[in-house]
């Protein structure tokens, strides 16, 4: 069993995701950034999701399903709000470049 992510973990994760977006813009997928940063901050969760049917690395649409597996239930909506903010930011980069 894995220790699921809590609010402070989600904030840290999306801080790193936002840094990726600032650095790479539309050149990075959200699932790719989430998985790369999970590997750095919680290898057990990264390993748990790697090659899982809901691994979001290549398929951004898998992110909500992956979140259900690795985020404490009480923080799931919070994480999805952060995800929506990141999607909006990435879309803005796609328009800029």
> How many domain units?
1
What is the string of helix and strand elements?
Answer: HHHHH
Q: Outline, from the CA principal axes?
A: globular
Count the E strands. Answer: 0
User: What separation lies between the terminal Cα atoms?
Assistant: 42 Å
How many strands, what sense, and barrel or not for the largest sheet? Answer: none
- Residue-averaged pLDDT, rounded? 93
Structural class: mainly alpha
**Percentage of residues assigned to helices:** 55-70%
Number of helices: 5
Please give the radius of gyration in angstroms. 12 Å
Low-confidence stretches: none
Task: Please give a structural write-up.
This protein is mainly alpha-helical. The model has no long low-confidence stretch (mean pLDDT 93). Helix 1 runs parallel beside helix 5 (76-96) and helix 2 packs across helix 3 (43-49). The protein has one domain (7-92). The N and C termini lie far apart (42 Å). Helices cover 68% and strands 0% of the residues. The protein is globular and about 35 Å long.
Summarize this entry quickly.
The protein is mostly helical. The protein is 68% helix and 0% strand.
Task: Describe the secondary-structure layout.
Blueprint: H1 7-24, H2 30-41, H3 43-49, H4 63-70, H5 76-96
Helix pairs in contact: 1-2, 1-5, 2-3
Features:
68% helix, 97 residues, globular, mainly alpha
